[in-house]
Amino acid sequence: MTLLNAPEYDPAKERKNRNILIGIGIGIVLITAIGVGGFFAGHGWFFDDLGIEHHVGTFMGAVQANDLERAYAIWLNDPEWKQHPQNPNYDFSRFQEDWGPKSRDGYVKSYHVGISKRTGTGCIVAVTINKRDKPVFLWYDPHTGKMSFSPLDLGTY
Q1: How much is the pTM?
Q2: Which of its termini does the chain have fewer beta carbons within 10 Å around, N or C?
């Protein structure tokens, strides 16, 4: 093909190609913004910890409603926990001491599920109870669905 028999200029095709390139660029910028935005907002890359935060929020809602049996079932990820032998490390009576009305916080009147951070095989979630200054850090294991108190502290967030 020589310059003399080059294809005719098609403005519609050029406009379509330009719009495709602009769309790809905008898509890359949006994906990057969502991924990094989730991380900096404290909800994990691409906001992938929101499901875990929702699970912790469901648990805290049960504690706030003083439905400690349901809260313990969420804690253990076992709705049939009464049919099984008691957990020797953290049985229901100990759970009631930590989360019941006689706990350090008393009745849970309000809570706020704050940031979360994945570390190791699980996720640490910060929960502020009754507008206290220092949040409680809970550990969630996504493989088993069980919760516990976090051995790590996220510091101030």
Answers
A1: 0.76
A2: N
